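Sample 3 of the quickstart, ligand ribavirin triphosphate:
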Amino acid sequence: MSERERTFVMVKPDGVQRGLIGEIVSRFEDRGLKLVGGKFMRIDRDLAEEHYGEHADKPFFEGLVEFITSGPVFAMVWEGADATRQVRSMVGETDPAESPAGTIRGDLGLDLGRNVIHASDHEDPGSNEREIDLFFDDEELIDYDRVDEGWLY
Ligand code: RTP
Ligand code: MG
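Result:
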């Protein structure tokens, strides 16, 4: 079995406004991942610019920062074997139109700008830990056993 790891996930402002937090949390629970942190919050401009810093020179950067700061988000940390890659495969492609049915963006996303969810990038090693550190203090991440641990990822 692959190594257990933690990964960062966030329901974006469009997902919160459309009442999709529960649906998205359920998908990860159903998949056998373990929730170790969760926070309903607003992102300020500084945090948004740091979080999406890799896109600072892209033409869509300003719009992306405005969108992600436009309303509350639900930030989460999920744990499991190979969790970053597992979560990204459940999320789908950046553009919902390119995302297969059955993926979160394929089923729930509207367009490139309103794609309901962010997840750490498995093709950018270390992005999961970097993003977890950016959004959560250590004491906000909860170590615990789930009763069905042996059956989970
Ligand atoms: P995210 O970081 O939000 O999870 O999305 P991602 O990895 O699938 O995509 P990424 O390349 O990191 O882009 C971040 C967000 O920027 C918006 N975007 N707009 N050409 C465009 O207009 C464009 N390209 C990307 C998307 O909302 C994407 O989620
Ligand atoms: Mg990304």
